[in-house]
Design brief:
The protein contains 14 helices and no strands. By secondary structure, it is mostly helical. The chain has a single domain, classed as Orthogonal Bundle (ABC transporter involved in vitamin B12 uptake, BtuC), CATH 1.10.3470. Helix 5 packs antiparallel against helix 11 and helix 12 packs across helix 14.
């Protein structure tokens, strides 16, 4: 029975990977500039320098790859955060990552007059990492050490603080508001591959580390007392999981801004399909997260064409009904 279940899970994983590849290709083909699948193939096999080929290779390809990487990273972060905090609504926003990254970018713009999108990438990554580490440290203070409730409260408090500071600085500097507002809404538009290259080593390490600790997360999910009784070093697992969250959520926010709902919704979809085994939940979540963000990004191009809706707005539209369902189910204890 176990072997049969694993075979079905493997087949499902192959299907979701195939869907991700198809959506990456669709993201390259479809948009405001009219192109076709044949033209896309020619752009990569027989590049002629035309405007269409330039759009396909230098605009849409980076955008598609970045959307897939960001969606995967946010989803994996959500899986680990929900297991760590025992909170079904845990996400990078609860951990303070989004708010910390946004605040860092606004400070760089208003105080230091930084205008480079590439500089935003590193500044946002630094702000996200500092925020996440701060939440982890604050949540660990006290005789009981780190607890799910303390971590959640610390994250909520830090998020509120960073969000308030961000709004305050933007009110003071309206020019900064115009420049950073699109980034704060969450977007993969206009990103270049070099931005992904900047954080790809951190993302790749985070993906690998998440897979390596997957079996340990299964034991941790049973409860810390049970996990300790089985010989698991829970403190080490918490630190490793927190490192993964910092790398993946921080890197994703650094590239695309604070995109919400993926880290909340996707882990629940993955568990509904493959159960609670993190060895399957993590890879399923990674590709489901990529699919969701790719679908949201493609949809964002057509809502108010020729203009575009920030992809963070589309994920909110798609994710809100599921968020309400999860919240109601958690509240009712079912």
């Amino acid at each position: 029975m176990l072997l049969t279940n694993n075979i079905y899970r493997l087949i499902g994983l192959v299907l979701i990977i195939s869907t991700t590849v198809f959506l990456i290709c669709a993201s390259i083909v479809y948009g405001y500039t009219e192109t076709s699948w044949k033209m896309a193939i020619q752009a990569f096999t027989n590049f002629d320098g035309s405007n269409e080929h330039l759009v396909l290779t230098t605009v849409r390809l980076p955008r598609a790859l970045i959307a897939a990487a960001v969606g995967s990273s946010l989803a994996i972060s959500g899986v680990l955060m929900q297991t760590l905090t025992k909170n079904p609504l845990a996400s990078p926003s609860i951990f303070g990552v989004n708010a910390g990254a946004g605040f860092a970018v606004v400070i760089a713009l208003t105080v230091f007059s930084v205008t480079s999108l590439q500089a935003y990438t590193w500044i946002a990554f630094l702000g996200a990492a500092v925020a996440a580490i701060s939440v982890y440290v604050i949540g660990s203070v006290g005789r009981e050490g780190l607890t799910p409730m303390k971590l959640t409260l610390a994250g909520a408090a830090m998020s509120a603080m960073f969000a308030s500071f961000t709004q305050g600085f933007l009110v003071i500097n309206e020019t900064a508001l115009d420049q950073v507002l699109f980034w704060l809404a969450g977007s993969v538009q206009g990103r270049k591959l070099e931005y992904l290259y900047n954080v790809l080593p951190y993302l790749a390490f985070g993906w690998l580390l998440a897979l390596l600790i997957a079996s340990k997360m299964n034991i941790f999910a049973m409860g810390e007392d049970v996990a300790r009784g089985l010989g698991l070093r829970t403190g080490t697992i918490k630190v490793l999981a927190a490192i993964v969250v910092i790398l993946l959520a921080g890197g994703a926010v650094a590239i695309a801004g604070p995109i919400g709902f993926i880290g909340i919704v996707i882990p629940h979809f993955a568990r509904a399909v493959v159960g609670t085994d993190h060895r399957w939940v993590i890879p399923y979540s990674a590709f489901m997260g990529a699919c969701l963000l790719l679908v949201a990004d493609i949809s964002a191009r057509y809502v108010i064409m020729p203009q575009e809706v920030p992809v963070g707005v589309m994920t909110a539209i798609i994710g809100t009904p599921f968020f309400v369902y999860i919240a109601r189910r958690g509240f009712n204890g079912s």
